[in-house]
Design a protein that fits this description.
Blueprint: E1 3-7, E2 10-13, E3 18-25, E4 34-39, E5 46-51, E6 58-60, E7 68-73, E8 78-83, E9 92-98, E10 113-114, E11 118-123
Parallel strand pairs: 2-11
Antiparallel strand pairs: 1-3, 3-8, 4-5, 4-9, 5-6, 7-8, 9-10, 9-11
Length: about 120
């Protein structure tokens, strides 16, 4: 049984930084694309970033491009999201996900495994 556990969320002032982690257990996800999504109450889950299984291909939502960096450490079965220059509109619950079919798409429907989420709050 695959489990994804996010950590690193919290409260930060606008312009600050946070680093989220998502540790996987149950099996190796080294060949699975891993992604981050975020969601605010009343809205659909929104794509943030994705990284390929090898880590050499990344893709970002336009809203975070140039500010966020996704990376992975396959030896630790973990993916990270470095968030810089945070804005109040980045406030959301952040979820990590994995796609066992290797598609690495921006649609939440294509991901098979999900974490429980971690709250990120950016104050103005």
């Amino acid at each position: 049984q695959v489990q994804l556990v996010e950590s690193g969320g919290g409260l930060v002032q606008a312009g600050g930084s946070l680093r989220l982690s998502c540790a996987a257990s149950g099996r190796s996800l080294n060949y699975y694309p891993r992604a981050w999504f975020r969601q605010v109450p009343g809205k659909e889950r929104q794509f943030v970033a994705v990284i390929s299984g090898s880590g050499d291909i990344t893709n970002y939502a336009d809203t975070v491009k140039g500010r966020f960096i996704i990376s992975r450490d396959n030896a630790k079965n973990t993916v990270y999201l470095q968030m810089n220059s945070l804005k109040p509109e980045d406030t959301a619950v952040y979820y990590c996900a994995a796609d066992r079919w290797g598609r690495a798409e921006s649609s939440a429907a294509t991901y098979n495994y999900w974490g429980q989420g971690t709250q990120v709050t950016v104050s103005s």
